[in-house]
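Q: Got one fold?
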Amino acid sequence: MDIEKIRKAFESEGIEKEIRCPEAFAISEKYGIAKMDIAKYCNTNGVKIRGCQLGCFK
């Protein structure tokens, strides 16, 4: 997991403390970051994932 890449992607997209599932999927596609890496980043950095569609993010 490239923490700095995810941090920069979130910063570019204006994500601070909360992200919605569709936003996470879009960031995954746009920046080439695995969805599970986004989930791990969120879990370890206090970013709440809201409205999960498929149970990919916990």
